[in-house]
Write a structure and sequence with these properties.
It is a single chain. The protein is of the alpha+beta class. The protein has one domain. The strands form 2 sheets. Strands 1, 3, 4, 5, 6, 7 and 8 form a 7-stranded mixed sheet that branches. A two-stranded antiparallel ribbon has the order 2-9.
Length: 190
């Protein structure tokens, strides 16, 4: 596995450059990379009959070094709230790195209000590999083989917990220092 905290890798990650010699990441072509992930997500939704909410556009502003894909099933096993005013679900988030074949997973909840607006998890190191809702863990068990078949590599919390050097500056609004390897690979600057 790649040493995520090496000087060379950190420099590339923090400047939005690929750390992989594999296609499509080696191209540094955002359109090609997004197209690759879009095809995967569409295939997963079709094959496993899933609903999804996917942040393709850096949450609408800034730059995200990952694509935040959230999958769920529109049924009572995933539903956490339902009323005429609000719908909410717990689902599986997959953060796909834009700079490498790496991904992480966890559980996240989203809800929508009929009057507009909603609530959502924000990706964090603490949420990686955290499954408290069995249907979400089961869903990941279904999807993981397909992700690996597409050449993707799952990183676990243990792989990403190493602290970065104290003088590291990660362009992210998701956390404060001290930064971890997770923050270098999965950051969002607004």
């Amino acid at each position: 596995m790649l040493e995520l905290c090496s000087d060379d890798v950190l420099k590339k990650l923090l400047h939005g450059q690929s750390i992989s010699d594999q296609s499509p990441w080696s191209s540094n072509d955002e359109g090609e990379i997004v197209g690759f992930y879009r095809a995967i997500c569409e295939d997963l939704c079709r094959e496993f009959v899933l609903s999804s909410e996917i942040e393709w556009e850096d949450y609408g502003s800034g730059y995200a070094s990952y694509i935040d894909a959230w999958f769920y099933r529109d049924n009572d096993r995933f539903k956490v709230s339902s009323s005429p005013e609000c719908r909410g679900y717990t689902g599986l988030f997959v953060l796909f790195s834009r700079l490498s074949p790496y991904f992480v997973v966890g559980e996240g909840t989203k809800s929508w209000n009929v009057n507009g607006g909603g609530r959502s998890y924000l990706p964090s190191f603490e949420l990686v590999d955290d499954f408290t809702h069995q249907p979400v863990a089961d869903l990941f068990g279904e999807l993981e083989p397909r992700l690996i078949q597409r050449g993707l590599v799952r990183l676990r919390k243990d792989d990403l917990g190493q602290l970065l050097p104290e003088d590291s500056r990660v362009p992210t609004i998701l956390c404060d220092p001290p930064y971890r390897a997770f923050d270098a690979l999965f950051h969002w600057a607004d």
